[in-house]
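On clarity, I found the account of how folds are encoded harder to follow than it need be. Since the whole study asks how a given chain folds, the encoding of that fold should be made plain. For illustration, here is how one protein appears when written out as sequence plus C-alpha cells:
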Amino acid sequence: VDRFLSLQLSISSGLSAAEVKTMKFLCRDKIAKRKLESVESGLELFSILMEQQVIAPDQLGFLKELLQHIKRRDLLLLVEQFEQAELHAPDDQPDEHEKPFDVIRANVGRDWKKLMRELGLPEVKLDKVETAYRYDLEEMVFQALREWQKWKGKDAKVADLIKALQGCNLKLVADWIED
C-alpha cells in the first residue's frame, strides 16, 4: 500500500465532522468554493489538496498546519513519523512505482512463486497473495513483490531482486532491471 495514502486514511478516519469542517474553512484560499462544498470527509479534502499540488509525500507543511490549527497533536505526530520514515528510507529500496516492479510484473509470469521463494518470502504470504489475486497473474506478481518489500523493510534492495531473478534463470529480466 502506498504509505502516503495510508497516512491520509489514518488521519481521515481520526477526524470528526466538525474537524473536517474547520479544515475545509482553512482551505478556502486553496480550493474553489464549489469544490469545497461537496467535501464530506478528510479523504476527499486530501484528494483535492493533492490534485492542487498543495500536499504531497515530500510536501507536508500545509497538512501539518491544518492539524495544528485543529489541535490534533496525535495526528500531527503521524505526519512527523511519516516524514522521518521517508528521510531514512534507503535510496535503492525498490518502490512499487519504479521500474523493477513493472519489469518483473510484466515478464515473470508463472515463475513468480519461484522468484518469491528465491527472495525468501514465507509460504504463508505467497498463499495469501495467490488467494487474493487468483485471476490476475500480473497483480499476483505485483502484490507478492509488495509483500516481500514490506516483509524485508529497509533491507529490500534492488540488488536482491536482480540476484533472485538470476537464481531463477530469469537473466534477461534481471538485465532489463539493471539497465
Remarks:
- The domain at 97-178 is CATH 1.10.533.10 (Death Domain, Fas).
- Residues 137-152 form the longest helix (16 residues).
- The chain has a mean pLDDT of 86.
